[in-house]
Amino acid sequence: METNPKAFYDAEVLHVWTLGVAPYTDEKFKTNFRHNSFFVGNNSRQAVNQGLADYTPIFLSNVPQLFRRGLVPVNVALIQTSLPDIHGYMSIGISVDIVKAAVENASLVIAQVNANMPKVHGMDLFIFRISILSSPIMSPCWNMKPLLRMKRPKKSGNMFPISFKTGYHSGRVWSLPNAILDSFKSKKHLGVHTELLTDGVMELMKQGVIDNSRKTRNRGKSVATFCMGHQGTYEFIHDNPGVEFRTIDYTNNPLIIAEQENMTPLTVPWRSI
């Protein structure tokens, strides 16, 4: 970009949440890019506060409709996919959320085929054959870099002991650190319907604490719309029939959530490496 500053001009970059570096929010690129976020992350917050980037306040479950109705046009969708399987099919892996709607409504799709991207199950995963990559609307490229990973907050002071005690004595807690999911080890037959699938959820599934056997919807499946975690979590969800990814207008739909019996809302704070 710096060697060819006129390659892009007045391009809007749409994200749900920005991970890693975000050079397109730098003031020196203000004539090239304008960042528009549906969820303000650490790497874009300063730019939004300074007026160098935009934030569109909206329920995340409503974002796919912006694309489908053409209220927010998508000219180019930049996505990552898994490697093709023996039948030539690829999946969009750990980020289904708004990606499926973007792909379906974009004029051009540029797919990074990444060997590190797990193949995740789910009817909304938009699995497509590698043969369509030669079509006019699809352009492939190869990227073998490791996926971005998350890490748990470090213990500091008495935060964790208090949080663990709170998590142990109460199931109706709105906000808990990822680490205190350990306090659910003694539970049985838990089910998961979430926006974000984390390392803590993966560990409870491996231990049999989460088996989703008593869910009203998607029984037997841990349902999420995207995943951020350690490499072990990505390996765990790869081709795992016990995990199902759906679009964000399904996972975050309050009517669908309300149909689940005995559901306790739980949010987990996290941050990127």
User: Main β-sheet, in a few words?
Assistant: 3 strands, parallel
Spans of at least 5 consecutive residues with low confidence: 157-164, 166-177, 267-273
Instruction: Give the helix proportion (percent range).
Output: 10-25%
For the record, the CATH class of the largest domain is Alpha Beta
Whole-number tally of structural domains: 2
Beta-strand percent range? 15-25%
Mean pLDDT across the residues is 80
Number of helices: 8
Question: So, CATH architecture of the largest domain?
Answer: 3-Layer(aba) Sandwich
> If you consult CATH, what is the topology of the largest domain?
Glutaconate Coenzyme A-transferase
Structural class: alpha/beta
Under CATH, the homologous superfamily of the largest domain reads Glutaconate Coenzyme A-transferase
The best one-word shape is: globular
Query: Element order, helices and strands?
Result: EEHEHEEHEEEEHEHEEHEHHE
Q: What does the radius of gyration come to? A: 20 Å
Q: Distance between the terminal alpha carbons, to the nearest Å?
A: 25 Å
Q: Spatial order of the strands in the main sheet?
A: 1-2-3
Structural summary, described in words:
- The protein is 21% helix and 19% strand.
- With 273 residues, it is α/β, with parallel strands linked by helices.
- It folds into two domains: 132 residues, Glutaconate Coenzyme A-transferase (3-Layer(aba) Sandwich), CATH 3.40.1080.10; 123 residues, 4-hydroxybutyrate coenzyme  like domains (Transcription Regulator spoIIAA).
- The strands form six sheets. A three-stranded parallel beta sheet has the order 1-2-3, with helices on one face. It has a three-stranded parallel beta sheet with strand order 4-6-8.
- The longest helix has 11 residues.
- The protein is globular, with a radius of gyration of 20 Å.
- The C terminus is likely disordered.
